[in-house]
Structure to design on (852 residues):
């Protein structure tokens, strides 16, 4: 395992070094161009547009799994490192200054939002994937909701049975007050993402505290419910991670399309007013 | 349940004979032939034989030069020569006429337009089938029936130029590959006009069951025809300068052994479900740790487990796939030290296994007394020849993981889907890609047993010994001729579910088929929905190989041939 981690790190460093080398070449070329009084803004702008369009093609590639276009893994690696390069190019295109004018500000914000959402996506896909292996169970995302309902039904059945046999409201009251809402929908989303067990520990300790007021039958029921609480917590944990891994794309992809539209308008505007550049 | 307005007749095994043109008169004529004289007279006159032949055989007429079987193709049937003459090429692999002359071409793939058209032509309804379409999806011999002959020209020159052996009326060929579920070892072509009886392997299986002499005949034929080329492929014999005389001696003295039950898919499934130690005890023992070796064991087909005693149980160390050997090191050490060396490990058959045993005395006589075998053998070992035992010893594959692979019988796979769960983001791009390439129907489940961080997904592994094929009554599930992928012919699948029940890995799903409106297509007779068996076909008709593997953005999914231990170790180590 240690050897494979070393290999991966080595590969990553090789790519980062290549990226830094390219960025250095870019910075030198821009400096030379500026000294020679070339309009470097046009060159960096076009290059940036080409890169952004190229990056957006990654999503198109996913729609064609039946064509021999190379593996998605290779595309993703290229996507990541070209994105990082485009970030440097973007700053260079802005000449390390804040943009002026509402349109340019919106365009820059869009680029930044796409870039940052991409970085977040990269981070979550690297971190959350391995996190899911540390909790028991492996759940298909689409099956989590039905499984949650199944748990809810099992708990409700237990509570009703308990009420009928003991003629006591201790367990049903606690269920209505604390457990129903817990089993009904995904809970503690953010706590799961920061690996906090606090809410479920609290709930389990409440269950334990309640046991001193219950008879043997009720205690047995509460112990079974405690197991269901843990199972539900595992489901929520997987839901929180899988949902984040899926839904970050709902920001990244639409923002990319918006960026492409704004960039196209930006090109038209630049050429419409290019007299000012010459 | 909403069902289609136009029910169809449910096909039965009788609807899918090997040849629809095999008449009663043909059958009567065939049974009169002298080649059936060797059968038990009682069986020869039985209805059972008639049914077997009617269902699983057909008459094939060949013109001069027609290629009947090609070396490397996966065998699904055997041939009995009824009239005429055929020639079997005896050249070393790759030295016969070119692949293109043999009519071998890449599998039929969708063209670029057809591939792109999947974007809009895939059906929205799951498991759509055009019930009006009737297609017989057979391979080489069907092509011959269509008038597309695959033949070689100038047969006399070929016979002069290359080493061949002639076979005439009454002789049988192709049964070893068909029964062993392995690849053909030689190319056979017609020397003149010939008439052959082609029997698919289901028919051979029935013949073996019903007539005791047939199995003995097949063993004898293996010794006389295929053992020589098999021995040439064995690594420690390859590096020796074997002359024909020594090879003859090895062929004469070699013992042929089978372990496990050939037509019991259930046993493999049951074994995979049982607990580890019980499982191991139930596996037929081939060689036992501590016992002195009688010979070198060469695995011909199937998979074997190598284990050693560990406290009160057995620890799995590796697995052996066809072509691998067991016991050579012990015999070699014994020869060097001058005293017998016992087996260091035990060897057990996982499912059905066939082996060739070369007696120790023979090894001593043929190899050690005349050659310094050990040195060239060890020097010749290349990294790609890494065995699972070495991988275990070198720490390339964790012992627990190896135990898991053998315990669950995943070592049987030639394209096992492994997913690294530390990398998998559960994005399901693999499932979507699979669906996109299969008319919107995913052909695997991204679920399955997990060991440490590796999941073995429920996808067809295209087993080395595909036990799913055993009980298929129509031969709908078979190996593709070229690459040997296990594929299901939708048009000849009768939906009996035998393959699905027999698959120990739950990789074959029975689905209820639908029409254009998404309504279930039902049978005329019982009004029940028509079912078909479905599974991964490794995207044989697509460009670029398995879509699932190509679609994984995180390099988390791979299709691994478990016989390629070096590939497995490299993937685990990436």
């Amino acid at each position: 395992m240690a050897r494979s981690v070393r290999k991966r790190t080595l590969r990553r460093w090789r790519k980062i070094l290549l990226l830094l080398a390219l960025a250095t070449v870019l910075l030198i070329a821009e400096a030379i161009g500026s000294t020679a009084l070339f309009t470097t803004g046009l060159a960096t702008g076009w290059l940036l547009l080409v890169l952004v369009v190229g990056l957006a093609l990654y999503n198109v590639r996913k729609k064609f799994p039946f064509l021999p276009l190379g593996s998605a893994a290779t595309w993703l690696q290229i996507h990541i490192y070209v994105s990082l390069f485009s970030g440097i190019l973007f700053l260079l295109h802005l000449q390390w200054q804040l943009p002026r004018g509402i349109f340019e500000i919106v365009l820059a914000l869009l680029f930044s939002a796409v870039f940052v959402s991409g970085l977040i996506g990269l981070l979550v896909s690297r971190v959350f994937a391995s996190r899911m292996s540390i909790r028991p169970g492996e759940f298909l995302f689409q099956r989590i909701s039905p499984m949650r309902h199944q748990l809810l039904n099992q708990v409700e059945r237990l509570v009703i049975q308990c009420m009928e046999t003991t003629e006591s409201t201790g367990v049903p009251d606690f269920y209505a007050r604390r457990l129903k809402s817990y089993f009904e929908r995904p809970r503690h989303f953010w706590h799961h993402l920061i690996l906090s067990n606090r809410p479920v520990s609290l709930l389990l300790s409440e269950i334990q505290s309640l046991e001193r007021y219950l008879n043997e039958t009720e205690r047995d029921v509460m112990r079974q419910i405690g197991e269901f609480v843990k199972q539900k917590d595992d489901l929520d944990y997987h839901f929180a991670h899988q949902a984040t891994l899926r839904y970050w794309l709902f920001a990244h992809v639409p923002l990319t399309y918006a960026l492409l539209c704004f960039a196209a308008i930006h090109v038209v505007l630049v050429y419409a007013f290019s007299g000012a550049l010459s | 349940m909403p069902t289609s307005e136009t029910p169809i007749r449910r096909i039965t095994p009788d609807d899918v004979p090997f040849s629809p043109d095999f008449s009663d008169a043909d059958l009567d004529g065939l049974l009169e032939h002298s080649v059936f004289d060797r059968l038990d007279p009682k069986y020869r006159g039985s209805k059972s034989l008639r049914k077997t032949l009617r269902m699983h055989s057909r008459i094939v007429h060949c013109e001069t030069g027609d290629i009947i079987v090609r070396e490397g193709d996966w065998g699904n049937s055997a041939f009995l020569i009824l009239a005429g003459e055929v020639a079997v090429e005896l050249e070393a692999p790759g030295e016969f006429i070119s692949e293109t002359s043999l009519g071998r071409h890449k599998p039929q793939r969708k063209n670029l337009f057809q591939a792109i058209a999947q974007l809009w032509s895939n059906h929205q309804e799951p498991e759509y089938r055009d019930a009006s379409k009737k297609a017989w999806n057979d391979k080489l011999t069907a092509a011959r029936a269509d008038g597309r002959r695959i033949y070689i020209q100038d047969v006399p020159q070929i016979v002069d130029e290359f080493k061949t052996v002639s076979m005439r009326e009454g002789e049988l060929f192709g049964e070893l590959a068909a029964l062993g579920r392995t690849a053909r070892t030689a190319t056979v072509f017609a020397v003149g006009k010939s008439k052959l009886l082609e029997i698919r392997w289901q028919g051979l299986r029935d013949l073996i069951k019903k007539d005791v002499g047939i199995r003995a005949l097949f063993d004898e034929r293996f010794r006389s025809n295929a053992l020589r080329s098999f021995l040439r492929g064995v690594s420690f014999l390859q590096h020796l300068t074997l002359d024909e005389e020594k090879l003859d001696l090895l062929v004469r003295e070699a013992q042929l052994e089978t372990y496990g039950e050939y037509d019991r898919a259930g046993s493999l499934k049951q074994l995979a479900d049982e607990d580890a130690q019980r499982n191991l005890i139930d596996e037929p023992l081939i060689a036992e740790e501590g016992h002195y070796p009688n010979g070198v064991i060469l695995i011909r087909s199937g998979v074997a487990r190598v284990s050693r005693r560990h406290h009160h149980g057995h620890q799995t160390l590796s697995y052996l796939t066809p072509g691998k050997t067991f016991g050579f090191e012990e015999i070699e050490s014994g020869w060097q030290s001058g005293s017998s060396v016992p087996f260091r490990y035990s060897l057990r058959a996982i499912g059905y296994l066939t082996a060739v045993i070369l007696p120790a005395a023979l090894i001593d006589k043929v190899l050690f007394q005349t050659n310094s075998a050990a040195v060239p053998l060890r020097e010749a070992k290349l990294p790609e020849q890494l065995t699972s035992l070495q991988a275990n010893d070198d720490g390339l594959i964790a012992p627990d993981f190896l135990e898991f692979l053998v315990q669950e019988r995943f070592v049987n796979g030639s394209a096992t889907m492994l997913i690294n769960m530390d990398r998998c983001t559960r994005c399901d791009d693999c499932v979507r890609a699979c669906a996109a390439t299969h008319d919107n129907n995913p052909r695997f489940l991204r679920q399955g047993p997990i060991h440490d961080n590796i999941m073995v997904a429920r996808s067809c592994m295209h087993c080395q010994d595909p036990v799913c094929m055993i009980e298929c009554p129509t031969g709908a599930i078979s190996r593709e001729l070229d690459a040997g992928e296990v594929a299901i012919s939708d048009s000849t699948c009768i939906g009996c579910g035998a393959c699905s029940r027999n698959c120990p890995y739950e990789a074959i799903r029975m689905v209820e088929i639908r029409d254009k409106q998404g309504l279930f297509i039902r049978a005329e007779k019982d009004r029940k929905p028509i079912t078909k068996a479905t599974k991964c076909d490794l995207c044989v008709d697509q460009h670029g190989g398995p879509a699932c593997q190509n679609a994984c953005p995180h390099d988390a999914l791979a299709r691994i041939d478990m016989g390629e231990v070096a590939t497995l170790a490299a993937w685990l180590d990436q």
In short: Residues 141-244 of chain A form one domain. The radius of gyration of chain A is 27 Å.
